[in-house]
C-alpha cells in the first residue's frame, strides 16, 4: 500500500441516515489497522471550513455501530459552495496535516468533494449515505434498508386502525426525487396503490383503482405516496379530491417525515457500512481518488464520483407490475 497518505479525514454531510455511524467506525478502524491517523471532521463541510476537527482512534468509535444519526453531526454547507469557503477548508486540512478525506453523504456532498478535488487535487472518496437510495453506482445506499423496515413497521400499524374503521389512508414517505422507498415499502406493506415520481399515474387512474378496490370487497386501503410524486397534489389535496369524488371513503392522511431517517441501523446497513468503510480507506491507500464505493450484485465496486453525481437511478418497472398484480 502507498506510504503517501498518513492521515485521513472523515465527515458526514447532507441528510443523515442510519448506518453512517457504522461507516465512521469502519473508516476509523481501517485507518488504525493500516497504522495511519484519522481525524473526525464535525458538521460536514461547514466543520471543515471552521476547523471543527477531532483526532479519532479505534476506541473513539466504541458502541456506535448500533446507533442511528451520526456522531460527527451533519450539515448542508452553503459556504463550501463558494471558492472562499473551500479555500478556508483547504487551509484547515493542510494545517491538520490531513492528506485525503472520506465523505459519507449523498449527491450534494459528492459534488462538493469533486469541486474540491478539481481545485486542490485533494484525494476524495465518497460513501453513499441517504435513505432515498437515489445514488447511481450502488444498489443500496446506507440507511435505505433501515428506512424500508421502519416504513413497513409503521404502515403495518396504520393498517390495523385503517381496517378497524374501514378507512382509506394516504401515507406519505420520503423520497424527494425518487420512489424507491415508496415502491419497495409499499409492496412490503401490501399497499393498494403506490404513487412515485417515476410514474405519473394521474388522478383519474387513482380514482379508478380505488373504485375497483372497493368493488372487489376491500373495506380499507393504504395508498403510499413518495414525497416527490408528480401527480401534482400533496397527500392532503389528494384526500380532498377523494372526499369530493368518492364520499363513500373515509379518508385519513399520515406523513411519516423524519422518523424515517432515525433509528438503529438494520444488520444489512451495518454490514454494508463496514464493507464500504474498509474499501474507502484501502482504495485511498492504493492511490485512488474521486471514486464512490458502492455495492453492485453484492460486490463492493468503485464508480467515478462524477458518474455517481451525474447518473440517475431507476426504479425496477417489474416491481410496479408486481405491485399491480398482488394488490388486486
Ligand atoms: O435526502 C434525504 C431526505 O430525507 C429526502 O427524502 C427529504 O426530502 C430530505 O432529505 C429532507 O431534508 P431535510 O432534513 O433537510 O428537511
TrEMBL record:
Q: Which residues bind ATP?
A: 15, 76-77, 106-109
Q: Which residues form the Phosphofructokinase domain?
A: 7-283
Q: Which GO terms describe its cellular component?
A: 6-phosphofructokinase complex
InterPro entries this protein is in? ATP_PFK, ATP_PFK_prok-type, PFKA_ATP_prok, Phosphofructokinase_CS, Phosphofructokinase_dom, PKF_sf
Write out the GO biological process terms. Answer: canonical glycolysis; fructose 1,6-bisphosphate metabolic process; fructose 6-phosphate metabolic process
Its subcellular locations are: Cytoplasm
Its annotated pathway reads: Carbohydrate degradation; glycolysis; D-glyceraldehyde 3-phosphate and glycerone phosphate from D-glucose: step 3/4
Q: How is its activity regulated?
A: Allosterically activated by ADP and other diphosphonucleosides, and allosterically inhibited by phosphoenolpyruvate.
The record's annotation in PROSITE patterns points to: PHOSPHOFRUCTOKINASE
Q: Give yes or no: UniProt keyword Lipid metabolism.
A: no
Which keywords label this protein?
Allosteric enzyme, ATP-binding, Cytoplasm, Glycolysis, Kinase, Magnesium, Metal-binding, Nucleotide-binding, Transferase
List residues binding substrate. 130-132, 167, 174-176, 227, 252, 258-261
Query: Which cofactors does this protein require?
Result: Mg(2+)
Q: Which reaction does it catalyse?
A: beta-D-fructose 6-phosphate + ATP = beta-D-fructose 1,6-bisphosphate + ADP + H(+)
Amino-acid positions noted as binding ADP in the UniProt annotation, renumbered to this chain: 25-29, 159, 190-192, 218-220
The protein's Enzyme Commission number: 2.7.1.11
Query: Which GO MF term does the entry hold, naming one?
Result: identical protein binding
Summary of subunit composition and partner proteins: Homotetramer.
Which NCBIfam families does the record associate with it?
Answer: PFKA_ATP (TIGR02482), PRK03202.1 (NF002872)
Family to which this protein belongs? Belongs to the phosphofructokinase type A (PFKA) family. ATP-dependent PFK group I subfamily. Prokaryotic clade 'B1' sub-subfamily.
Q: What does this protein do?
A: Catalyzes the phosphorylation of D-fructose 6-phosphate to fructose 1,6-bisphosphate by ATP, the first committing step of glycolysis.
The name of this protein is: ATP-dependent 6-phosphofructokinase
